[in-house]
Design goal:
The protein is globular. The longest helix has 20 residues. The chain is built from 10 helices and 14 strands. The protein has an 8-stranded mixed sheet with strand order 3-2-6-7-8-9-1-10. Strands 5-4-12-11 form a 4-stranded antiparallel sheet, with no helix packed on it. The protein starts with a strand and ends with a helix. About 30% of the residues lie in helices and about 20% in strands.
Length: about 325
């Protein structure tokens, strides 16, 4: 039987203040004026110290991903004689996220921890991160988490729901539960909210094969795609990056190597020495992204990479719908 607690707003505020001493609490916050267009806001992850700072009623425009894989991450510093790895985070992390994003963590773990090589930098962040589930009472407009089976999550450390009067908490993590008990929470059964139906529905193709890579649909979508890479940056499961060596101006023999987010959709991503490029056409790049999400990853790990958050549909400046593309591909495969 699931157990939980009911806290007053004052008690919840007290818990947040205590946790802020040990953890960096990262959650969706409204960043005013930082949207892509003039005088528009964006909901993105930032540090919070109070439940009132969190956006509870909307899915974030950007995913939790940068908490585990920073946009720009220094891997090591170097001189002509030595290298040094940066120190790990001083505090542990508490990351607030939706069910679809929590399923995205599983995908990230597969790539960085169980894909033949364990990434040192990802692992040490992952080991110092706990996840706080935010329930979904209503579906978001473009999401199709029900179709992907990611509308419900269980592997969370804490679940939190906020209404006008109280804060409701389910705390499988005993360490965090101790803070809630200490604040005087009233025991009460708490079950995470989750949606059972989306406005958007997706049917995954069941008969994909190598022939699927040659369909005309890829040329059609490739003609519309401008290769900006925004879909990759908002996606909770895209993992592409590139490397940058930064040389310091005051010492040309010292600097640092950084891992920086990249996109499989942009020019130059597949370029190699000798002028070789594996995917020169935009249609080939679009095909790679879609098939990687619904075919390649499932073939290797047993389930699709996409979690159905719908962010790529919302962010595309050319109004390309990934979900519509997958549905069209499914229909073509049936013929």
């Amino acid at each position: 039987m699931l157990m939980g607690y009911r806290l007053s707003k004052a008690q919840a505020e007290k818990v947040f203040q205590i946790l802020s001493g040990k953890y960096d609490i990262l959650a969706p916050v409204r960043m005013k004026g930082d949207g892509c267009f003039a005088d528009t806001d964006v909901i993105r992850y930032g540090k919070v110290t109070s439940p009132d700072e969190i956006v509870w009623d909307r899915r974030s425009d950007y995913s939790y991903k940068e908490a585990l894989l920073p946009v720009n991450e220094t891997l090591f510093y170097f001189t002509e004689n030595n290298t040094a790895v940066p120190e790990e985070m001083k505090k542990e992390q508490l990351v607030f996220l939706r069910s679809c994003d929590l399923h995205g963590v599983r995908r990230m773990d597969e790539i960085y921890l169980r894909n033949g090589y364990e990434d040192f930098y990802y692992r040490r962040r992952r080991e110092r991160t706990k996840f706080v589930l935010m329930g979904c009472e209503t579906t978001c407009g473009s999401g199709f988490c029900v179709s992907m089976g990611t509308n419900k999550a269980e592997e969370y450390d804490v679940y939190i729901k906020v209404d006008k009067e109280y804060v409701y908490v389910d705390c499988p993590c005993q360490e965090l539960e101790a803070y809630v008990e200490k604040a005087g929470g009233t025991p009460q059964r708490v079950v995470p909210d989750h949606v059972t139906e989306n406005k958007e529905k997706v049917t995954l193709p069941k008969n994909l094969s190598n022939e699927s890579f040659t369909r005309e649909i890829w040329k059609e979508y490739g003609a519309r795609c401008i290769g900006c890479g925004r879909c990759n940056f908002v996606c909770p499961t895209c993992t592409c990056f590139t490397m940058q060596d930064i040389i310091y101006k005051d010492n040309g023999k010292a600097g640092e190597r950084r891992r920086v987010w990249a996109s499989c959709q942009v020019d130059g991503y597949t370029d190699m020495a000798g002028g070789i490029s594996f995917r020169k056409e935009q249609g080939d790049r679009f095909r790679f992204k879609v098939m990687h999400k619904i075919y390649d990853h499932e073939k290797r790990f047993g389930y699709p990479m996409c979690v159905g958050c719908g962010r790529c549909d919302d962010i595309c400046p050319e109004y390309i719908s990934y979900s519509n593309c997958v549905n069209r591909l499914a229909k073509e495969e049936e013929q």
